[in-house]
Specification:
Layout (H helix, E strand, L loop, with lengths): L1 E7 L2 E7 L3 H35 L19 H41 L5 H13 L2 H15 L5 H24 L4 H9 L4 H12 L1 H16 L3 H6 L8 H11 L4 H21 L1 H8 L6
Antiparallel strand pairs: 1-2
Helix pairs in contact: 1-11, 2-5, 2-8, 2-10, 2-11, 3-5, 5-8, 6-7, 8-12, 10-11
Length: 293
């Protein structure tokens, strides 16, 4: 038991603060929560560990592989890069194109919905929400018919446009929530100095919205990088193959060499992991940017 001195009105009084069994019980409770959290995290990350472990097995068989790669082999990565390297580059080009197209459309649309006061804005938001809830297979089937007439099947621009149609509604919603917190006075000050609507948007609004732009761009990249449905529906030849479709087709021909399959999965996971690690502070700031006005 400890004592703390408190001075009130020139008099010093002592107050006893119990630091015995109660404090120890609190420490044990926190320790128990920590252990439970570590166990849950280990269970959730075990598939990732087994993916990396299987990619380093020299035999290529995950059933007879060791729990820990004592003698790691990079033959699976060599085969994966040789067979799937072009598909990884294709996915990277499509994902970066999706980010550029999504932000180019979503940023000005979100700013208009956030700052301008028109009666049709609520209807526009309802349409965006409905577009966000449409199943992907419905959009893919509709795009297949349109792409067949326009000659966009088996093309990178066609996949970029398809992935952007999925990313733009979500980007508009999170960008609008953040841009609603931008004080109109700073935009009006730029207008008074002679800047037009476009100049004020580019010079004032976009720099202020940097965090949420990075967040929206990252989600657009992840949507496109992990896309399988559009890639499967809108490609009929091997001219354009994203890595998700490459892994799907890889399973049928490489079932006896799982190290190459797992190596491809590891390589396809690296860009998303690196982006999340690098941009995590921007994501935290951008995700909560519109939470408080």
């Amino acid at each position: 038991m400890t004592t703390t001195s408190i001075v009130t009105g020139g008099r010093q009084t002592r107050r006893f603060a119990p630091v015995g069994p109660r404090r120890h019980r609190g420490d044990r409770r926190h320790l128990g929560y920590t252990v439970v959290g570590i166990l849950i995290l280990a269970i959730m990350l075990f598939p990732v560990y087994w993916m990396v472990n299987a990619s380093l097995q020299p035999s290529g068989n995950t059933l007879t592989g060791d729990f820990f790669p004592v003698n790691p082999s990079f033959a699976g990565y060599e085969k994966a890069i040789a067979d799937q390297g072009g598909h990884l580059v294709t996915s990277l080009v499509i994902s970066l194109g999706t980010v550029v197209l999504s932000l180019a459309i979503a940023a000005p649309a979100a700013y208009a919905l956030a700052q301008f006061r028109f009666r049709w804005i609520s209807i526009a938001l309802l349409v965006i929400l409905i577009a966000q809830m449409i199943p992907g297979i419905v959009i893919a089937n509709a795009l297949y018919s349109a792409y067949n007439d326009l000659g966009l099947l088996n093309s990178i621009p066609g996949l970029i446009l398809a992935d952007a149609s999925h990313a733009i509604p979500f980007a508009i919603l999170i960008l609008r929530a953040s841009m609603q917190t931008i004080p109109p006075s700073i935009v009006e000050a730029a207008r008074v100095d002679g800047a037009g609507h476009v100049r004020a948007f580019v010079s004032i609004v976009l720099p202020v919205s940097r965090n949420v732009l990075i967040t929206a761009g990252l989600f657009a990249f992840l949507f496109s990088w992990s896309d399988f449905l559009f890639a499967l529906t809108l490609t009929t030849t091997e001219d354009v193959r994203p890595v998700t479709l490459g892994i799907y087709q890889y399973l049928g021909s490489q079932v006896s060499n799982w190290s190459a399959v797992m190596a491809t999965a590891v390589l396809s996971s690296l860009p998303a992991i690196l982006l999340l690690v690098i941009a995590q502070r921007f994501i935290a700031a951008g995700a909560t940017g519109g939470a408080v006005k």
